[in-house]
Amino acid sequence: MSRSTRARPAPWWDDLAGISFMGGGTFGNRTPTAEFNIWADPHAARVVVDAGIPLTMAGLDVTHQFQTNSERIDRVRAIGGPLATVLADLFTFFSANYRDRHDDLEGAAVHDPLAVLALTHPHLFSTSDRFVAVVDDGELTRGMTVIDRRTLVDRPAANCRVLEQVDAPTAWDVIIDAISAVTTP
What we know:
By secondary structure, the protein is an alpha/beta fold. It folds into 2 domains: 19-66 and 109-152, no CATH class; 71-108. The chain has helices spanning 2-7, 36-40, 42-50, 60-63, 70-79, 81-101, 112-120, 168-181; strands at residues 19-22, 55-58, 125-134, 145-148, 160-166. The protein has a 5-stranded mixed beta sheet.
């Protein structure tokens, strides 16, 4: 995306309804201030965020609300078949990993599906339009997303729709339905 926004002189994205991405947040997972996807290439992330493309951001603040737990993993495993078994095993592995590394998570955060669900099931989320900036350098701040939550009248214009809350039980039902739909007995 970053290369495309720099390579084309005309705003080719005018025909896009928008881009939904998983990244950022008000806290980090790669560093104290940076989420991994943004940290991996903060220069590219900054170009995209600054490009004027309609954006929806699924950051760690919302993805950490959407976690696996034993009941959810059991529902996946109960579907049966190779896909459900592999997914249940992966969820089990990542849940143990998250519990070992975090003192506030009961299971693994399921990050990336929320960026898709924001497009296919937007009613599952509460959102706010915010100005978001990416810090592309700094010893402690490289990859940090700054989300302007101020209520001042004189603040930068919003450039991103930020997912704030997710109806996690209903979102998990959508995941179960999707796995079931592609599973053959």
